[in-house]
Design brief:
Structural class: mainly alpha
Number of helices: 20
Oligomer: single chain
Distance between the termini: 35 Å
Helix content: over 70%
Radius of gyration: 22 Å
Shape: globular
Length: 500
Amino acid sequence: MNYSALFMQLLPEAVLVITALVLLAAAVAVESKCGKAISSSAAIGIAALGVVAASLALFFMPAPTGSVTSLIVLDPLARIFKAVVLGLGLLAIFLPPARREIAQPGEFYALMLFALTGLLLTTGTNHLLFLFVALELASLSLYLLAGFSRTARAAEASLKYFLFGGVSAAFLLFGLSLIYGFSHSATLHGVAVALAAGPPSPLAIAGLVMVVVGLGFKLAAAPFHYWAPDVYQGAPATSVALVAAASKAVGLVVLVRFLMIGFHNVSGSADWGGMLAGWSPWLAVLAAVSMVFGNVLALAQTSVRRLLAYSAVANTGYLMVALSANGVSAAGAALFYVVVYGLATLGALAVTAAVERDCGNDSPAAFAGLIHRSPWQAVALLVFLTSLAGIPPLAGFVGKFAMFSAAMAESTKSGTPGLTWLVGLAAIMSAISLYYYLSVLKQAFVKEAPEADAVADSTAPLSHLLAIGLPAVALVVLGLFPALLLDPIARAVVESLGPR
């Protein structure tokens, strides 16, 4: 085995692991010498430098390699989403926890780097076993991060996340074992060859159902989302940002690879009047349930964090609308939107964390008068929430329009109404989401806050300003010039998955 070539293929992951070990060593050295934990600013600085170095290492990786039987695949899709994960991870690191929330920042940010390592490994493989191991490396780190603040609410969030995650991992692993038993291959390409040789066996169908259940947990799709509200509300904001943005993007990449490489030939159809058995109708049902469940329950929330959790459920439904069409253009649009969604949700969480730190809670009323207390945060919040609602000219509107139009175009080729019923439901649910997003913005821009709640902008550290400002700028730029990201992702999907 050529270990030097293997190391170069895993250079970004190696940089992250080395940085995590350095951070742990620095934390132990500071504590043994000074009797106290390393400062949060120092831990954030070291972790951020490691992520930046890993991003630079992407340019030194070898040209796209990896046969259909290899563990590691460096195709264009993997390269783009490794960069996306690192970018979202860097923004999550910049979002500092609330005061006195993290007693050991060295260990906390080292776990974040380990989680990012697992997420990077997951984006670049078509191997069933390697995929599971990489996902679990990320998941185990995220379970610990969710409960790291050691409060009762964080402990409850971490326990629920771990229990639901353990069950989903069992579904995923058992499903993968059934698929291997059917295909006698550990790669998605081998599964596709076995399916092309004849009708799918019950083993393959059962395995696919279990895998979709396992990945539905990662994406917070209803009814596999019950962990999300408690984790979003109870975990440190930094951990939630990593779960909401980077983990969701990787989950969608895995689902796209799985369905469109391994099981493309058994997609079936969810078209109105022309439904055929396959995974497309299943995704369509999950999409409808997620959109309705997420948007309706978000209306009743009195916590902005929980509101964003149910928003995550609804947005998973929008993503599955596009995947139900089983086309590369729709898949590319969904992958573009998951990046846009991650930026918007991460930014909204950053503003919510600032308000929560200043006012002591995350209720919509805590945002009252934000335009007077901190005008730039209020404007950033306006960008984030209107992008999530799909208001032009922001990137969220472009992403939803691209997804729904691509889904319609793919599904109406046969002359039937196609996915019109599902896209119409998505449009109605998007309109409903305006109410709960605007209810928060009404507090921020219309309501007056008590004088005692006035807080100066200078109280926010530089890293927090970056966690709010950079996503806001990115959403405006991608809304005005979507081709900057949409076109590269579309090309990467075609090159990595092949034309359909």
